[in-house]
């Protein structure tokens, strides 16, 4: 039986990956940081909470990483843990760098000295592309991160490549474009929208306040993307791969698709800071822009080219943006019914 260790197992991707690896017959270990109210809502929702072996684990502490590596000696190690909210990274730049950049080399070095045959996956991100240099973006696109989060992830990306080249480790990075699901964190824009719309559809009156409505993202379904992570570690050679859908959508269009899934008919008015959306059926104000959600620097356009992953891993995204918006809207609507 193969053993896998997943950091960030309590997060969105960690939960889907744990479920996938358990289905494939792995013994699954997960790193959990100490919190005052230990709860595992995502793992519980997928019905796998009692099947994952949990280990105390914090990316900021090298010694607990070494202990976890020594205790498990995993065949595969997936580093999904991170301070993953781009918006918060301007408020927590040092912490974000410590966890998202230094945390990666802490793991790589613990593996190199204690379990060198372990295959390693690093959660790299389309945020590394940042300012648009090339459309669509692929593995060779120049990196130009636009947030402390993006900058920290660039370090994680290159140190993974460096340990592969320096020590011959089987270390791969998945450059994943945005991927969402009903388990998405509530502060990310897609989930903020579907949660807010669900409350409005059930009689609520609070409009959803958002920032930049013109940003474009390449959004896929998280369940597809964890399959891609696993496929990367099954290759004979470690490498880096973009996972994306190759379509891009504005925040406004995602909002419209999710609203339509809740039987709303939107009337968009104004622009910039004055933009609003009203549901023609009820006359309710459902969205207004609040500049407090603008970011100090924005990533305007992300669209990924997953040709390499398709060719080498046989991987493609299976859920399109309308299906994704509908899936998330339905889940949040039903949860309030
Ligand atoms: P989540 O925010 O849902 O999960 C993050 C996980 O990291 C949680 O389990 C969290 O634990 C854990 N964590 C945070 N800080 C620490 C720390 N100091 N030590 C140990 N664990 C910590 O993220 P996602 O599942 O969405 O993303 C997974 C990874 O993929 C992240 O690295 C993210 O940056 C990256 N990524 C995500 C994309 C996406 O669209 N979802 C796209 C590209 C990359 P806790 O539950 O205690 O908070
Ligand atoms: P992102 O996701 O920054 O792409 O990072 P997020 O959903 O936070 O933002 C997407 C875009 O929406 C705009 N936006 C808002 N965002 C939030 N969160 N809240 C708002 O009110 C709002 N209004 C507009 C943002 O400005 C942005 O342009 C996600 C994370 O999962 C990262 O960890 C991961 O690396 C990248 O995706 C790929």
Automatic annotation (TrEMBL):
Keywords: Lyase, NADP, Nodulation
Record-stated family: Belongs to the NAD(P)-dependent epimerase/dehydratase family. GDP-mannose 4,6-dehydratase subfamily.
Listed HAMAP family: GDP_Man_dehydratase (MF_00955)
Protein name, entry field: GDP-mannose 4,6-dehydratase
Record SUPFAM superfamilies: NAD(P)-binding Rossmann-fold domains
Xref: PANTHER family: GDP-MANNOSE 4,6 DEHYDRATASE (PTHR43715:SF1), GDP-MANNOSE 4,6-DEHYDRATASE (PTHR43715)
Superkingdom of the source species: Bacteria
NCBIfam families listed in its UniProt record: gmd (TIGR01472)
Chemical reaction(s) catalysed: GDP-alpha-D-mannose = GDP-4-dehydro-alpha-D-rhamnose + H2O
Cofactor: NADP(+)
EC class of the enzyme, as a word: lyase
Keyword Thylakoid tagged: no
Short name of any one Pfam family annotated for the protein: GDP_Man_Dehyd
Organism: Jannaschia faecimaris
Role this protein plays: Catalyzes the conversion of GDP-D-mannose to GDP-4-dehydro-6-deoxy-D-mannose.
NAD(P)-binding domain span: 5-328
Single annotated GO MF: GDP-mannose 4,6-dehydratase activity
Annotated GO biological process: 'de novo' GDP-L-fucose biosynthetic process
EC number, as in UniProt: 4.2.1.47
